[in-house]
Amino acid sequence: MEDPYKLLEKWMSSESFLVVGRGVYRVDSLDKALGKALFTEDYYIDYFLENALFIKQVLSPLPHARIKSIDASRALSISGVYGVYTARDIPGENQVGYAIPDQPLLAQGKVRYPGEVVALVAARDYEKAIKAAEEVVVEYEELPALLDPLEALERRDVLIHEERGSNIAFQTRVRKGNVEEGFSKAQVVVENEYRLHHQEHAYLETEAALAIPESEGRITVIGGLQYPHLGQKIISRVLGIPMSKVKVVAPYIGGGFGGKDDEGPLTCAKAALVAYLTGKPAFILYSREESIKIHPKREAAVIRYKSGVDENGKLTAIDVTIIHDTGAYANRGPFILWRATMHASGPYEVPNAKVDGYAVYTNKVYQGSFRGFGNLSIQFAVERQMDLLAEKLGLDPVEFRLRNILREGSTTLTSQVLDHSVGVGEALEKTALKADWWRKRREIEEYNKTSERFKRGIGVAVAWHGISTSRAVPDWSNAYVKVELDGSVTVYTGIVEMGQGSPTSSHVQIVSEILGVPVDRVKVVFASTDAPDTGATHASRGTSIGGVGILVATAKIRERMASLAAKLLGVNPEDIEFRDGRVYSKSDPSKNISWRDLVREAYARGVEVSATGYYYLPKGRFDETVGQGFAYPAYSYIVLITEVEVDTWTGEVKVLRVYPGLAAGKIINPQQVEGQIEGAIAQAVGYTLMEYLYFNEKGWVVNTNFTDYVVPTAKDMPEIEKPVYVEDRFKHGAFGAKGVGEMALIPGPASIANAIAHALGVNITSTPLTPWRILEYTRTSGRG
Amino acid sequence: MKVEFVLNGKKVVVDVEPNELLINTLRDKLGVKSVKYACGIGECGNCTVLIDGEPVLSCLTLTVDVNGREVVTDEGLSREGLTKLQKAFIEEGAFQCGYCTPAFILMGEYLLREKQNPSIEDVKEYLKGVLCRCTGYINIFKAVLKTSSRREDSGNA
């Protein structure tokens, strides 16, 4: 049996497991604990320090300008400088836009944000490269700049991309039912405008890539990126050479969070370009300042949200306008906007809906992928609305949500019927019980009556997140698995290791589970274009979707080995089981053979012990004109209940405790899942309370270091309770896993804001909730 | 100029520029991998090393200043195998991308030397100078606390 759908179904029905669901230690543990793990720069230092050229980028100082001339003569006169490269030197296409062809690798004709890369300087060492980059003289003709998306939306006289005819990069819409009729049935209507700010990824390893020219015109790039095959495609396009001549490998990556999904392929392409043009190895490493200036950020959004409920507390209609400040380039903006648009109802049933989305160009650093893209901002609006509606109805926030929550058989915002894997209602009830929500809410309200300076609050927020790519956008998994002659197993996948642990834990567990070999006999070669295209390590798909290809390939090998073992042991293939490095007859365990001997027999008797595991996700139809139809194969769900304390004298907010509840299908490695939740909560605390990019009047990001862009430290962390798990298995995920990586960040800001609103009795409509913002609220509420 | 110091128990002699930073000498010339650049201005703590037993940011230290002193990095904590704390990091899943891990391990070892039975507040206070963007710190706290209680249990605190 080699049919991938049947194989997945067969393994989905497993009830008992050897290693799946257990906290198996990651295989990268030892190297990481001993400080031996190699990141991109380590390869440069170890093998290329005196050999490779160092690349420095020349950045635009202006938000919007025409490039009149670039004079590199002074830079080139410095000894040790090999070259200065601009758009003109690109042998292939100078086009790297992921969704819309609007973005050059190196500025061409115009610059559209401060920090845009105009030229690359290559020199023998780091210091020479820095000096030469300063000597490149670029003459600009400054153009009027647009920094505010609402202004850019209206202006026709200043166009950031002339060829597009307006400053709207992309539009989306949902039309469901009859919104006017819906609102006419509403007893309570709430309407607000929400403003969400940018977020910087602040991964600790900045962007880096090392490109090595090889024989036969091939080029190998080692770099930090989240989708090696995308890097391969971009490099091939920029250099004008076949993809088969480009190999891309990501070593361990020092954090990605989406940022290296956008910037990583471009980083690799810059190194590849210099290596290709000079015939020498070339290395690029962004300084922290360059990293913050250049790479895309989480979208800033303006969201106008109107929602109505009837006398039974059921939502009747929503009317939503979403405006994303997409910055200088569309990048993944259309995907981000679609995600926001299709998630605009939150995990609730809404019979009538109108949603309009606009991604608007401005002359600022562009927006891109950041853990839960598009969804964090819209769930903030949804979950603030839900609290306000509950308050007006006099209902408890949890109770009100439960009346509207999606359940199996529910119809979503895009009119898709959810036929399986909808555990959110159960997760909400169980998390509220675990947090002792109702009692705590009353006690806190009592406490606040007498406490003058410190106010406490408890808030809830729920989120859904579509698994896989949206709409009919194709998505697949694949992997190549081979059993070596000694019985050890090698797996090739394009999924990367950026800390999330899928190739170093869950992928290993999947193989170990199916073949019954110990985890230390399984090696996953990750993040390489030598593997079949596995899709990106983003959208929480590394384990669930990325793991499916591995599961299918391994299951194929098992079927073949089971037949062989059955023949050798003289039993039925259904009677065969694999465990602890041996293969047994279930009915008579005295009949058995070691895995190693079985593998030797397979090699001797002509049984193929390698396989690919291609798996194409079945999708449905989606009508983009009305935003109706098949949005995602399934959704992951999460509940966060958060307790805060607000110091009304200083405006400081302390997040005391968080109770997570997760409905993300089968949990393959609970320790890794908890790590994902805790890390995401840290980023949510940072985003909501302290992280903020300052743009000056020229569109510059002013705070380009960790002194001024403040991320949470050990002192800022709340207590995080053990998650409540509802294992609502997903039929197209490995063992039923859906995806966890992004989940806890998505409702984090809403949950904290709802808790602060509860503490202070105010309506919170924007982020970040820095001390001065909190002090403004306490003044207006008169409760400070 | 020549600088001589003890690195992870071994004497090293290295030729450096007067303005050379310790992080660069360690990484570029002495094969130390665990010391990481992440900010370059002493904010993130990822380049932490122990100099004569005290934690110091190697991105803000001139190599000439360690002449005649003793420098320890994550690689040099244990002559053989893993330290108890390194083992606890593995057991508790106290890292994800692993970039900041060596700095946390050094700070954790330093704390456990200073305070044999630290409270969770002590742990947070000692670790607050190192940034991690992946883990949310929780499992790092667990690993440090676990190591301290184990020391107590085994009676060699």
Protein described:
By secondary structure, chain A is α+β, with helices and mostly antiparallel strands. Chain A has 3 domains: 4-37 and 476-616, Aldehyde oxidase/xanthine dehydrogenase, molybdopterin binding domain (Aldehyde Oxidoreductase, domain 4); 40-143 and 207-285, Aldehyde oxidase/xanthine dehydrogenase, a/b hammerhead (Aldehyde Oxidoreductase, domain 3); 370-470 and 632-781, Aldehyde Oxidoreductase, domain 4, CATH 3.30.365. Chain A is built from 21 helices and 31 strands. Chain A has a 7-stranded mixed sheet, sandwiched between helices. A 5-stranded mixed sheet of chain A has the order 7-15-14-13-8. In chain B, 35% of the residues lie in helices and 15% in strands. Chain B has 5 helices and 5 strands, in the order E-E-H-E-E-E-H-H-H-H. The radius of gyration of chain B is 16 Å and the shape is globular. At the A-B interface, helix 2, helix 3 and helix 19 of A face helix 2, helix 3, helix 4 and helix 5 of B.
Helix content of chain A: 25-40%
Q: How many DSSP helices of chain B?
A: 5
CATH architecture of the largest domain in chain A: 2-Layer Sandwich
* Percentage of residues in strands of chain B: 5-15%
Radius of gyration of chain B: 16 Å
Any idea of the CATH class of the largest domain in chain A?
Alpha Beta
Structural class label of chain A:
alpha+beta
Mean pLDDT of chain B: 94
Q: List the strand order in the largest sheet of chain B.
A: 2-1-5-3-4
Low-confidence stretches of chain A: none
How are helices and strands ordered from N to C of chain B? Answer: EEHEEEHHHH
